[in-house]
Each structure stands twice: as structure tokens, then as C-alpha cells.
Specification:
By secondary structure, the protein is of the alpha/beta class. It has 18 helices and 13 strands.
Length: 465
């Protein structure tokens, strides 16, 4: 069989169909439209089925904590009467140390059910460890493909840490340099091994996160007698926010605002060799968050089940220095030492809580484990070694790739709103570019875009003029 780059890429649809067990063509409709809910219904599992699947490997039912000391701190610097109660869903309590265990549990279960001998995932994040952990529990082989090093062979401490964790669970880890070879290598491995593609973006993976959303609603109601007002989700590829929001809806909750939060890495190109090691966050940043929100089908499956713009009420950014500051604050004020990904949404929540009334509730819906490469010290040392200026000051002056500025005072931590209308227009522009001709959108396509952007059909028409 021809294993050249062009030959393998020309077979990608066939490889994916065999490796995921889904014929995505079944859900395609006219033009740009596809039936998202049918895909989630027919290829996914019910909430009750997923709870049972996850429960068999100890996933889910994680604790939720009220962060009383951080709430008090927010109230000291907030206007009178402001300062919502801040709660934290401790997803680090999952077997592999993050909410990704929820995604992996359903994906690996599904792979075993379909008779696959092994699973492969392309990820440099916590998902690799989650898939490796679940594969070990269910007795499947596991290969994790990582984009790990720049062309000088230097790798981020956080990514190297995750490789160690995957190997500890018995997975084979394939480490690559930054660039286009990742997808080619991934397809090659899928074809050679016949293993299951445990993609982050399949319906089973996203449906796995729905239990997180439903759990947090039930836990907050049990603790406080009412549902939360705001839930903040760290946003990268969109699956965390999508799954959580769908779970909130399935729990019967109404009126909860879902906020996406990403680390601002504006100006850094994720596929750039020279920029690769100038960022101190490997996930939860705008380099993934913006493109996957405005064009979700750029993932490793034909149709991504992560559609964050359908559910996002607000999208904010936070700086690297602010997240490091909140990571220390969580440890020193609340006695919880957790990794940086969940602390992105915590930093945003600390700021947003100061806009809200005291009797309102804001929930940070994830934490992640800490390991040698995830601690602040190796991250900041690595940044300094790569020429990044580190100092205390005003985080608003931080320039991604050049500086990390830790706030001189907690009142300097400010979540910055992104323009939701601009993001929706960017999504609509991408849909226009996907059309193969100059015809107008059909009524069905307009209705599809309205669902995708959380707008009315008339609002979509207005943005097409």
C-alpha cells in the first residue's frame, strides 16, 4: 500500500470511517447543513447510560467545593453588594486527574464494544492520559500521538509531563515536532493498526462531558437550594463547554449563563516552530479557542460534536500571568493545588464574580491534576529560558510571546470580553466560504446557521448583508 503523504491524505475519509465506526455521510444534508442532533442521538449514549459506563471505571461524581476565602477576597475589592459565591468542581478527582476521563470513558468503552483491539488519540493534553488510563482499565492497547518538540528538540515541561503520565499507564507515546506531520502520522497509525480513533470530537466523547454539567447543577442545588447563575468553562477545542452546556440543559436547568474562558495568546501561531515554545499554556488558550469556535469542523473527524457557539453566552480572555497568580491563590487560600487549565476559568470567575450580586452563584466547572511539569516553577523557568520577560505589574501590559506579567494586586485581574457578534460573523463567513457556488443559502441552511450561532434566522440574514 502506498504510504506517501499524498496517498494517505487522499484516503483520510475511508480511514476515518473505519477507525470511528461512524458513517458521517448519514447526517449530511443539503449544502453546508448536517443533522447535529441526529448524530448525537444515534451515535451517542443517553445520560443514564453514560453515568453507568463512567461509574464502572470510577469516573465522575467528583466533589464540588465552595471557595469561601477567594469569595471573601473578591468581595473586598468588588463594589458594595457585589461578589458572588464561587464554587469549584474538582475534576482532578477523576482517575487520570481531569474531566477528560469523562470523554475517554465513553470513547474507550465504545471501542471495546465494537471489537477494536486498541485505541489511538492525537493529543498533547490531558486527554492522552485519560485515554491511556481507560484503555488500561478495559484491557485495550493504546497509542498517543503528541506534537511535543520544536525543531531544536525542546519540549514544553507540561507536554513532557503528560507523556510521562501516558507511559505510566502503559501507552506507547509517539512524539513529533510541530508541523503538518501530526495528522499524516495519525492517519498512518490508524490504518496500519486498525485501532479505534478515540478522537476528542466524536459524539461519544462529547456526550461523556454531559454528566459534568448535570452533576454540577444537582450538587449546587443540593448545597444551596438553587441552581447556579453562571458556569465558566475553560475553552479550547469546544468540547468541554459543549458537553457541560448540554448536560446543564439535560438536568432541566434554565437561565444559567455559560461563559467560555481562554488564555490570551494573541499573535502566537500554534503551528509555528518559532512560536511553539513561547507560550506557557498548551491548552485552554485562544490559539485553539477562537478557530475551533468559528470553524468547529477543523478537527480530526469529518463532523465535530463540539459546537461551542451553540451554547456560549459570553467569551472572555485572561492573561498567562493572571492564571499563574490564581493558581498560587487557590493553593494558598483554599489549600487546593491544581494544574493551570482549570485555573484559567477560575481567574475569569474571580473577575466575573465581582460584577455579580452577593447572593448569586458562579461555578468553575473543572480542575486538573498537578505533576512535575505542570507546576508554576518549571513553567516560568522554561519561559525565562526562552527569552520571555517575567515580572510583576499590570497584566494588561502582557504581550504573549514576549512577557508574562503577574498582577501586583488581585484587583488587577480582569476578564476581558471578546466581541460575540464578531465571533458569530466570523463563523458565518466561514460557512459562506464553504459553499461551492455563489447561490444564496436555502431556508434550511439559514436555520442551521441560526442554531450554530445561537441567533435567529433574521439575525443571520442581517449579518449576511
Amino acid at each position: 500500500m502506498d504510504r506517501s503523504y499524498n496517498a494517505v491524505m487522499s484516503r483520510k475519509t475511508e480511514i476515518m470511517k473505519k477507525a470511528v465506526g461512524i458513517d458521517y455521510n448519514t447526517f449530511e444534508k443539503e449544502g453546508i447543513e448536517f443533522d447535529y442532533e441526529a448524530m448525537m442521538r444515534e451515535a451517542g449514549y443517553s445520560l443514564e447510560e453514560i453515568k453507568k459506563i463512567q461509574g464502572e471505571t470510577g469516573v465522575g461524581n467528583t466533589p464540588i467545593y465552595e471557595l469561601r476565602n477567594l469569595t471573601d477576597l473578591a468581595r473586598k475589592i468588588a463594589p458594595a453588594g457585589k461578589g458572588a459565591r464561587i464554587f469549584l468542581k474538582d475534576e482532578a478527582s477523576n482517575p487520570s486527574g481531569s474531566f477528560k476521563a469523562r470523554r475517554a470513558a465513553t470513547a474507550v468503552y465504545h471501542a471495546k464494544k465494537l471489537g477494536y483491539k486498541g485505541v489511538i488519540a492525537a493529543t498533547s493534553g490531558n486527554y492522552g492520559a485519560a485515554v491511556a488510563s481507560q484503555a488500561a482499565m478495559l484491557g485495550l492497547k493504546c497509542i498517543i500521538v503528541q506534537e511535543c518538540y520544536d525543531s531544536n528538540g525542546k519540549g514544553q515541561p507540561e507536554i513532557v509531563e503528560k507523556a510521562r503520565k501516558c507511559e505510566a499507564y502503559g501507552a506507547e507515546v509517539v512524539q513529533l515536532t510541530v508541523g503538518p506531520e501530526l495528522f499524516y502520522s495519525f492517519l498512518n497509525l490508524l490504518e496500519e493498526t486498525g485501532y479505534f480513533n478515540a478522537s476528542l470530537y466524536t459524539p461519544f466523547g462529547i456526550a461523556g462531558v454531559e454528566t459534568l454539567g448535570s452533576e454540577l447543577v444537582e450538587q449546587i442545588v443540593e448545597k444551596t437550594g438553587k441552581q447556579p447563575d453562571v458556569v465558566v468553562c475553560t475553552n479550547a477545542g469546544g468540547g468541554n463547554l459543549t458537553g457541560t452546556a448540554r448536560g446543564i440543559i439535560k438536568a432541566g436547568a434554565k437561565g444559567i449563563k455559560v461563559v467560555g474562558a481562554s488564555v490570551n495568546l494573541k499573535g502566537l501561531h500554534m503551528a509555528s516552530d518559532s512560536d511553539f515554545n513561547k507560550k506557557s499554556f498548551t491548552t485552554g488558550h485562544t490559539g485553539f479557542g477562537i478557530p475551533f469556535t468559528t470553524n468547529p469542523d477543523r478537527s480530526d473527524v469529518p463532523r465535530s460534536a463540539a459546537r461551542p457557539l451553540r451554547y456560549m453566552d459570553r467569551y472572555v480572555t485572561i492573561t498567562q500571568g493572571e492564571v499563574f497568580y490564581m493558581t498560587e491563590s487557590l493553593a494558598q487560600l483554599e489549600g487546593l493545588e491544581r494544574g493551570p487549565a482549570g485555573n484559567t476559568s477560575l481567574a475569569a470567575a474571580f473577575s466575573i464574580a465581582q460584577e455579580m450580586d452577593k447572593d448569586q452563584i458562579i461555578v468553575v466547572q473543572e480542575t486538573e491534576y498537578t505533576g512535575a511539569g505542570k507546576h508554576i516553577q518549571p513553567q516560568l523557568s522554561f519561559a525565562r529560558d526562552n527569552g520571555i520577560d517575567l515580572h510583576f505589574g499590570n497584566p494588561r501590559d502582557e504581550v504573549p510571546g514576549k512577557s508574562i506579567i503577574l498582577p501586583e494586586h488581585p484587583k488587577m485581574i480582569k476578564a476581558i470580553d471578546l466581541d460575540m457578534d464578531k465571533i458569530r460573523k466570523s463563523y458565518i463567513k466561514n460557512m459562506v466560504n464553504k459553499k461551492s457556488d455563489s447561490r444564496q443559502f436555502t431556508d434550511e441552511e439559514l436555520s442551521y446557521i441560526a442554531l450554530e450561532t445561537n441567533l435567529t434566522v433574521e439575525e443571520v440574514k442581517g449579518r449576511l448583508k
